Amino acid sequence: MAEAAARLPVTVVVIAFDEAIHIARCLDRLVPYVERVVVVDSFSRDDTAAIARAHGAEVLQHAFTTHAAQVNWAIEAAAATTPWTMRVDADEYFEDGALAALGAMLAAQPGEVTGVTLRRKFVFRGRWIRHGRYYPVVLLRCWRTGAAVCEQRFMDEHMVLVSGRTAAFEGGDLVDHNLNDLDHWTAKHNRYATLAMADAVVREYGLAADDDRVAATGGAARRNRALKHGVYGRAPLYLRAVLLYVYRYVFRLGFVDGKVGFLFHTLHGLWLHLLIDAKIDEAREIIRRDGLDAFRERLAERHGIRL
C-alpha cells in the first residue's frame, strides 16, 4: 500500500447506488493512492455502503434526483481540502500505473491549468470496444478543487470548468467495465433514453434554460455537443439513428470489434438512439393531443422526472 505521504493530493468522489458488484474493485484501485475517497450513496438496497466503508472510503448518503444534481451535491458535501478533486463512477477503475503517472502530471501543472481530461476505455461483455468512435472517450474528471461543476442536465451531463484551462492526461486509462448482465444494461439504457427525451423536450419547448456550459470549453465534449445539437439534432427522427449507426459501424470500423462489438454498436449505436427518437416522437404526440402540462404530469408520475 502507498504511504500516506506519497498519496496523490486528490479527493475522489464516487457516486453509487446498488454497486456491490463493483465498488470494491473501484476502491481498491483508488484508496491506497489518493488522500481521500468519498462515496455518495443514494440509499442502496444492497451492501454498497458497508463494502465501501470496509475498503477505506468515507460514505455519505443522499437521496437521488438527477445524476448532475447528485454530483454537485457530492462535491459540495465532500468539502475537499486537497488541491485537486476527481470524479469516478463506481463501475470504473484505473489501469495499473495510471494514478502514479497522474500524480506526476498534477505536480508539474502550471496554475492556469485547472482541469485534467482523462481517456476512458469502455469494456462490454469482457471486450475492449476500440472502434466505432468509442475510444478514447475524453472527459474532464479531475480539476483543481472549486474549479469545476457539473452541468444541470437530465442526460449527457459533463463537468465544466469555471475558470482556467484543461490539460490532457495520457499516462493510462480510466476503464468503464460494468459487470451486470444484459437485462441490467437494457433497463439502464431504457432509463437513459427517457432522460434524453426529457432533455429534448426541455430544449424544444423552452421549459428551462438549456445548461450548455460545455460549449464554452474546449475538447471533445464541446465538439460532440455541437454535433448532437447541430447536424444530428436537425436531422429527421429515426433516419438520424440509422445514419449514426452506419457511420459508427462501417466508416469508423465498429465491425472490427468482432461479435461483441457488433452487439455493442448495434445496441448502443442503433437501438438506443432509435428508442430515444421513439420517445421524443411519442412525447410530441402526447403534447399535441393533451397539452404540455399533461405531459409534464405524466413524466413526473411515471418516471419521477420533473420538467
Describe the protein's topology.
Elements lengths: L7 E9 L6 H6 L5 E8 L6 H7 L3 E4 L5 H12 L5 E6 L2 E3 L3 H10 L5 E12 L2 E2 L8 E8 L3 E3 L8 E3 L3 E13 L4 H24 L14 H15 L4 H13 L6 H33 L1 H12 L4
Parallel strand pairs: 1-2, 1-4, 2-3, 6-11
Antiparallel strand pairs: 4-8, 5-11, 6-7, 6-8, 9-10
Helix pairs in contact: 5-8, 7-8, 8-9
Task: Give a description of the structure.
It is a single chain. With 307 residues, the protein is an alpha/beta fold. The protein has a domain at 182-303. The protein has helices at residues 23-28, 48-54, 67-78, 98-107, 182-205, 220-234, 239-251, 258-290, 292-303, and strands at residues 8-16, 34-41, 58-61, 84-89, 92-94, 113-124, 127-128, 137-144, 148-150, 159-161, 165-177. Strands 1, 2, 3, 4, 5, 6, 7, 8 and 11 form a nine-stranded mixed sheet that branches. The protein has a two-stranded antiparallel ribbon with strand order 9-10. Helix 5 (182-205) crosses helix 8, helix 7 (239-251) runs antiparallel to helix 8 (258-290) and helix 8 (258-290) packs across helix 9 (292-303). The longest helix has 33 residues, at 258-290. The model is unreliable at 1-5 (pLDDT under 50).
